[in-house]
């Protein structure tokens, strides 16, 4: 038994507790309350700290740690075309190193559950999917990798060069094999697989439809990119005669088992369809800013009741973005566009926790601090400089994110005093740097 005590608890699901405790038995939370906990157990003193649920990252491309800083000023399509040439050369070693650094960096900014979207599998370069799963085991975070894919190369009217695409049959067989090998549906699972074709402009309609059928027959979730830029609207109109969300709906790609990255350019009808079908959005504000994609209609989605989580997106389109920082970025961008009440600090924190849990289909396990849920907990130091602000949630969300005192994943310490404890900071940083050099020199 572990007891975190004397801590300000933001449960997210219920009332905040200004001075209370969280009791943990094994990988579960068994009690949350005000005052002192009467039972036995190892004590963690949470004085001066804010306890939040561990943060959930709903969109990433971990391999991109190895190609950060490429095309720093291009549009999405320009950036993609330049990046594909590099990505075609990656191998399992690059992916393992990049994922180690990327997941370590996420943990250091409060992330306890991370999804990933890996969609490039160059032939003869080792088992790239297994490489990132190994990295997640070493870092110690809950992992939701999506087996991605592209089958529409340039010769078929798509954007990626032919050498990075696979055939639809190959993709479906490999995806099914990955789900059967790795997916663990049990309560408290550390590893769940999603089916994740890359995007409507790199994947055929047939593969989108058959991917959805496959995922539903295997009982796993669906993920892809949607409505990220205006270029994509034009591409979809030209190629399919409809807007991106209309196209996705025609392929069976809206529903409570689907979450979509970006969703910047949504119509009022799209928003209603997301809410009615329970389709989730992975909001990636830094990436949207970096690529000039626009500001997503998050406050409208929330008002309609649609699930929304936060994501850092691949490190090549939002270099070194910390997940906790996306809480601030989401809040500021919504306010810049819609006014000062568009998104509160508490709503933004909810996106990063319960919102993400809903997107990943784990609202009954993670995303809030309550008995019966998994002990995925972040403790933030809101004393010192931060103590001049009375409301610790404002202290946490408005400026630079305060130091991370402790991160627990299923009751296990992954970060302590800002540093990784499962692997070391040095190991993670070196792995990322080595992956970058290996990719650029290959
Ligand atoms: Zn992405």
Automatic annotation (TrEMBL):
Which UniProt keywords are listed? Hydrolase, Metal-binding, Zinc
Q: Which CDD domains match?
A: ATZ_TRZ_like (cd01298)
All residue ranges annotated as the Amidohydrolase-related domain in the record: 51-382
- Pfam families cross-referenced by the UniProt entry: Amidohydro_1
What the entry lists under Gene3D superfamilies is as follows: Metal-dependent hydrolases, Urease, subunit C, domain 1
Coiled-coil residue windows: none
What terms describe the molecular function in GO for this protein? Answer: deaminase activity; hydrolase activity, acting on carbon-nitrogen (but not peptide) bonds, in cyclic amidines; metal ion binding
Q: Which domain of life is it from?
A: Bacteria
Residues crossing the lipid bilayer are none
Known InterPro entries for this protein? Amidohydro-rel, Metal-dep_hydrolase_composite, Metal_Hydrolase, MTA/SAH_deaminase
Checking NCBIfam families in the record gives: PRK08203.1
**Protein name per its UniProtKB record:** 8-oxoguanine deaminase
Q: What is the lineage of its organism?
A: Bacteria, Bacillati, Actinomycetota, Actinomycetes, Streptosporangiales
């Amino acid at each position: 038994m572990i007891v975190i005590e004397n801590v300000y608890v933001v449960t997210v699901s219920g009332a905040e507790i200004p001075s209370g405790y969280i009791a943990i038995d094994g990988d579960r939370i068994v009690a949350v309350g005000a005052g002192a906990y009467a039972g036995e157990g190892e004590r963690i003193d949470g004085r001066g700290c804010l306890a939040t649920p561990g943060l959930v990252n709903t969109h990433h491309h971990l391999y991109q740690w190895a190609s950060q800083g490429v095309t720093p000023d291009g549009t999405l399509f320009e950036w993609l075309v330049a990046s594909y040439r590099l990505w075609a050369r990656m191998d399992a070693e690059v992916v393992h190193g990049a994922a180690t650094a990327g997941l370590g960096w996420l943990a250091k900014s409060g992330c306890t559950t991370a999804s990933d979207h890996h969609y490039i599998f160059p032939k003869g370069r080792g088992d790239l999917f297994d490489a990132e799963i190994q990295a997640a085991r070493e870092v110690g975070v809950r992992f939701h990798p999506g087996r991605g894919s592209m089958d529409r190369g340039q010769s078929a009217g798509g954007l990626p060069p032919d050498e990075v695409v696979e055939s639809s049959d190959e993709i479906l067989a490999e995806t099914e094999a990955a789900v059967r090998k790795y997916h663990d549906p049990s309560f408290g699972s550390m590893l769940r697989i999603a089916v994740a074709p890359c995007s409507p402009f790199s994947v055929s309609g047939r593969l989108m439809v058959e991917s959805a059928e496959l995922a539903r027959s295997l009982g796993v979730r669906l993920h892809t990119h949607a409505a990220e830029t205006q270029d994509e609207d034009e591409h979809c109109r030209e190629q399919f005669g409809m807007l991106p969300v209309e196209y996705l709906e025609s392929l069976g790609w809206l529903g409570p088992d689907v979450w979509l990255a970006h969703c910047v350019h949504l119509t009022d009808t799209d928003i209603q369809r997301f809410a009615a079908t329970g389709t989730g959005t992975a909001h990636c504000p830094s990436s949207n800013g970096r690529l000039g994609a626009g500001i997503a209609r998050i406050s409208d989605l929330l008002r309609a009741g649609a699930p929304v989580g936060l994501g850092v997106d691949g490190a090549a389109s939002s270099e070194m973005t910390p997940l906790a920082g996306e809480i601030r970025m989401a809040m500021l961008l919504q306010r810049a566009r819609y006014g000062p009440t568009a998104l509160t600090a508490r709503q933004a924190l909810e996106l990063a926790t319960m919102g993400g849990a809903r997107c990943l289909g784990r609202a009954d396990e993670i995303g809030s601090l309550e008995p019966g849920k998994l002990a995925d907990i972040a403790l933030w130091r809101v004393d010192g400089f931060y103590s001049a602000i009375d409301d610790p949630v404002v202290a946490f969300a408005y400026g630079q994110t305060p130091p991370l005192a402790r991160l627990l994943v299923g009751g296990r310490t992954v970060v302590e005093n800002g540093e990784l404890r499962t692997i070391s900071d040095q190991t993670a940083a070196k792995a990322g740097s080595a992956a970058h050099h290996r990719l650029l020199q290959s």
